[in-house]
Amino acid sequence: MLTKFETKSNRVKGLSFHSKRPWILASLHSGVIQLWDYSMGTLIDRFDEHDGPVRGVHFHKSQPLFVSGGDDYKIKVWNYKTRRCLFTLLGHLDYIRTVQFHDEHPWIVSASDDQTIRIWNWQSRTCISVLTGHNHYVMCASFHPKEDLVVSASLDQTIRVWDIGSLRQKVVPADDILRLSQMNTDLFGGIDAVVKYVLEGHDRGVNWASFHPTLPLIVSGADDRQVKLWRMNDSKAWEVDTLRGHTNNVSSVMFHTKMDIIVSNSEDKSIRVWDATKRTGVQTFRREHDRFWILAVHPAMNLLAAGHDSGMIIFKLERERPAFSVSGDTLYYVKDRFLWLYEFSTQKDIQVVPIRKPGSVSLNQGPRTLSYSPTENAVLICSDVDGGSYELYIVPKDISLRSDYMQEAKRGAGGSAVFIARNRFAVLDRSTNQVVVKNLKNEIVKKSLLPIATDAIFYAGTGNVLCRAEDRVAIFDLQQRIVIGELQTPSVKYTVWSSDMESVALLGKHAIVIANKKLVLRCTMHETIRVKSGAWDDNGVFIYATLNHIKYCLSNGDTGIVRTLDEPIYITKISGSNIFCLDRDGKSRVISIDATEYIFKLSLMQKRYDHVMGMIRNSQLCGQAVIAYLQQKGFPEVALHFVKDEKTRFNLALESGNIQIAVASAKEIDDKDHWYRLGIEALRQGNTNIVEYAYQRTKNFERLSFLYLVTGNMEKLSKMLRIAEIKNDIMGQFHNALYLGDIQERVKILENAGHLPLAYVTAATHGLQEVADRLANELGDNVPSLPEGKTHSLLMPPAPLMCGGDWPLLRVMRGIFDNGSDMGRAGQEEEEDAAGADWGDEELDIVDMEGVMQNGEIIADLEDGEGNIENEEEGGWDLEDLELPADVDTPKAAGNSRHSFFVTPTPGMPVSQIWIQKSSLAGEHVAAGNFDTAMRLLSRQLAIKNFAPLKPLFMDIHMGSHSYLYALATAPIISIAVEKGWNESASSNGGGPPALVFRFSQMDEKLKAAYRATTEGKFPDALRHFLNILHAIPLIVVDSRREVDEVKELIDIAREYVLGLKIELKRKEIKDNLVRQQELAAYFTNCKLQKIHMRLVLTSAMTICYKGGNCSTAANFARMLLESSPTEVQAKKARQLLQHCGDKKDVNQLNYDYRNPFVVCGATFVPIYRGQKDVSCPYCGARFVPTIEGHLCAVCELAVVGADASGLLCSPTQIR
């Protein structure tokens, strides 16, 4: 059983497949009807108007209708498009068991516990016949698919077949007498339907009976646990056979639409499959806790559904994918027990050789995969027979010999088998996880153990196999026995190699992974519905089929739909715009597709802009999807060619920096918001003429004033002051006066506004004594006092860096697509003009500025009345002195050369980003300021979890790898990345790695300082020095392999000293436990230290143990001291102690055995003897007892003990 979809719900009592769409209706014991899309696995709708369980449900074959019948005695007809019940049919007097539409006539048949079967006309909404005769509940009733027959099953132990031929002629009665006879018919049953046969044979009530779709057969299931097969002819019907096997009531039984089998299910929690010709059991599928109640068979596809106590299951009995293999111009495939050959060039099918029929009767034993060797004309066919086996056929090259071909195929056991060379094939032996290589005589040549637990193998080039595990794939070279590549993927079902063997597509159930020949990932796609097959086209685009679409995928991960499918196909080859495929019946088909969309995207991706322009000119593409794609990929200038809508053109023009088209669109739209956005973009590009024009169109006087200030246009700023005066905009007047540095004007404005104290302060401060005196007189006693001792300075605006004109002086070359004509004007312009139509070489044709500015047009839209009232003596708005000069003719896009224009250059990639692009060295990521990626790298490489000690080092490295420049007082500080080994001749695009403040050479100095502190007995200082070394090493970068080894050696040295010093400091803390003191002193001697320090440690341990009464242990330390070339004083002391101790024993038992090699646990300070289990720190290598696993390392204080890590990475040489 191949499960396609499962649901969890209340008990499912009724099921019905839609004839065309991937939908199924499930009616539940709770009264709800669910509509599911089983290909997507989603619940589309639910209908819950029935009161009580709904036992029957059925889709109409062609109308958007379904019918349901429930325990509320009601039959409801629904429209699933409008999602409502159209009407209810009343008449039954008890529970309704089943309902069904007729395929052709507007009839519904229903079976009920009221012992009747009713036939209804759903168009006239009346009951047209009542079939009476059963004397117990009628459990089911259904129409014959072709003839005028109804079959019913009842708990009275009979099956009845009714002839309803006379219903065809029946019409709705017109007069009262006929109505009376109709009423009698309703009560007592009419003569419209007569019983043709009564089938008796079951010993208990019959639950189900159904017709064969084409043959005169009936199958029934009953409470006597038996399935019976009946045959009928024109005159009689009789029992053919009984199928026994169910252990409880048989709920439902049906014929399969496509296969010669019977499917039944039962309250014994099983579904059984029977061979209809041999009349034997083929297979049984069981559930643990759920009884089965209902079966449904898809009318057109190889699908079945079964309803049980906790939901339903949709399944197939056999795989429908034909086994096939493509080789050059030929396709080999298996169909109907024959091997076939299909030639793509001639489109002809040729039957090649017969294939052995599997001996077992169980399902799913057909060929699964096929592998072909073209040189030897050999075919390998794999199937699930006997738990997985293969058959090898050598096909005669001479066509005439094929008809007599009777050679016995060579067979063998194996999960999967593929050709790996001309005359060699590999077979997977799952039990031993190895590949067996055989020759064409089926003899074993060699065996290779596989690197991963493999459940299938695929071809991966000559001599290689692609091994599939549950969560990964790997390519294994059988000759060299090495792994060429490995990749984590969802479970892979099929692999498709490109013709040049450079790319592979790994197809899963819902995912496609595209990788190169070494399994380096290129992209991954996820599909909501199942992926069925795929092939590479000549351009390197992967074309694949899902259940209902053909789609494409580019190597950058872009996907799209090529066309929809009516039924699933299996793509075999793609040639130009033709897709060759096999359908589920094994027939070869050719489908034509339009490849324009993906060829366009491929050309864009490959930067083949001549192709792109050709496609644009031919206008083969259009639509919002293409525009959105071009925008997303950063080609708004290309998208411009497809757009007619002015708002979209405006947005695209701004995005691509094409001011010219943006201005033209803004004129068409003439909306304040668009002018404002145009102004912002023009300002960004430094195109001040356009900025000015945009601000004038929106009457944005404040921004205009500021623009004139920054461009140093004092003349126009003065005019802005006059405009503010006319508008009586006091704040605007004051701002403009401030920008102009006009003191008298500011005093005048403040005085007119009634701010006399402010006017006085302004006049007095700036030395306008006469005005100040006059204002002082007006103020009288309220004259404000001025602060004494302050020097006054004139508040003047800063002079602009450039006066007038457009800002950018940078030449930018013509854009890639500027040879393509602008679609909006292509028809109007002459040929020679069109050739040069790039962004900066046309007149903008915005407006005649003279005309705009004449007679103060800039504010002409203001109300005339208002102006006249406010400034009568100026003659209203006819202010000659407000004319803006003609030098603002028509604003042009910056630059006048025919072959260049000015746009802002695209920002380059920051050097810090270049540093981290291909680097896996944590130090370089820290230098670039990417602390999060550096932390992730350290976590992955060394399992570092505690980053607190590294924070100051991170800050130092980042600050030290950058230099900071002050450019202007008002400008932000410029950060400059400092490269390692930079010189003036080096390229300016940041090719080198960063200069790091921590270098390996500095570690030598730190180590000497640490040794010095240890010698002097300054243990806390020494510990701090060694820990600093351990903390700095993960961020150091070295150049050579030799230095990498030295770094690792330094880690070992630092670890031993940190451990020893921590043991010693712990010993000094303990005052009251003499035994523990002696143990710790003894453990310190086990650390690998420099000789000078080892002598000091041994002397100390010898003394402590002697004083503690452990003479034997003290004597052992004395002997060790004498072997380590001690000083004269140390040697003398050791000899004296040996003499004094003699053969004395230890007073206290210590947890210390010098004869048994051990390491000391870095956290608990106890010995871990050889052979005992331990865990280690992935960074420093310190050892710990197993209980410390998962805790922070107590030695380096950085990494997690026992965690997985890839190891220290401190040099680019380790990556190459």
UniProtKB/TrEMBL annotation:
Signal peptide: none
A single GO cellular-component term on record: COPI vesicle coat
Occurrences of domain COPA/B TPR (ranges): 624-772
Statement: the UniProt record of this protein carries the keyword Cytoplasm: yes
Pfam families registered for this protein in UniProt: B-prop_COPA_B_2nd, COPI_C, TPR_COPA_B, WD40
Sample GO molecular function, one term: structural molecule activity
InterPro entries named in the record: Beta-prop_COPA/B_2nd (IPR006692), Coatomer_alpha_WD-assoc_reg (IPR047312), Coatomer_asu (IPR016391), Coatomer_asu_C (IPR010714), Coatomer_complex_subunit (IPR050844), Haem_d1_sf (IPR011048), TPR_COPA_B (IPR056176), WD40/YVTN_repeat-like_dom_sf (IPR015943)
All residue ranges annotated as the Coatomer alpha subunit C-terminal domain in the record: 817-1216
GO BP annotation list: endoplasmic reticulum to Golgi vesicle-mediated transport; intra-Golgi vesicle-mediated transport; intracellular protein transport; retrograde vesicle-mediated transport, Golgi to endoplasmic reticulum
Gene3D superfamilies named in the record: 1.25.40.470, YVTN repeat-like/Quinoprotein amine dehydrogenase
Membrane topology: Peripheral membrane protein
Keyword terms, alphabetized: Cytoplasm, Cytoplasmic vesicle, ER-Golgi transport, Golgi apparatus, Membrane, Protein transport, Repeat, Transport, WD repeat
WD repeat boundaries on the chain: 47-88, 89-130, 131-164, 199-240, 243-284
Subunit structure: Oligomeric complex that consists of at least the alpha, beta, beta', gamma, delta, epsilon and zeta subunits.
Role, per record: The coatomer is a cytosolic protein complex that binds to dilysine motifs and reversibly associates with Golgi non-clathrin-coated vesicles, which further mediate biosynthetic protein transport from the ER, via the Golgi up to the trans Golgi network. Coatomer complex is required for budding from Golgi membranes, and is essential for the retrograde Golgi-to-ER transport of dilysine-tagged proteins.
Protein name: Coatomer subunit alpha
